[in-house]
Amino acid sequence: MIAILFIHLRFPGCASLKEKRSHLKPILVRLRREFNVSTAELELQDQWAEALIGCAMLGSDAAFLQAALETVLRWVEANWAYGDVWDSKIEILS
Fold first, then answer.
1. What's the predicted TM-score (pTM) here?
2. In whole angstroms, how far apart are CA 81 and each of 11, 48, 52?
3. pLDDT, tens digit (0-9, with 9 covering 90-100), for 9-67
4. Which of 31, 53, 75, 83 is least surrounded, with the fewest CB atoms within 10 Å of its CB?
5. CB–CB of 49/79 below 8 Å?
6. CA 12 – CA 32 distance, rounded (Å)
7. Closest alpha carbon to 31 in 2, 8, 54
8. What DSSP string runs through 28-57?
9. CATH placement of domain 2-93
């Protein structure tokens, strides 16, 4: 099974793509290191104030994958200081 967490982030104070990426890259690296998930910026690459990131995990237990990605989402909501989490969604593909 593959589980994907989509997180829509908002960067209210960003004035350039370079600034946005300077805030986004550290969180993607930290998520990889802390939670052993694959991460990427999926959409909105040309928007200064928004990003859609994805975190993916593979496993055989849907309940475990769901709980693990919910933990990732809670961590992002609690620790990300550069903006707001607008929306999130977890999809589990079998």
1. 0.89
2. 10, 16, 16
3. 998 888 888 888 888 899 999 999 999 999 999 988 888 889 999 999 999 999 999 99
4. 75
5. no
6. 25
7. 54
8. HHHHHHHH--EEEEEE-TT-SSEEEEEEEE
9. 3.30.70.1120
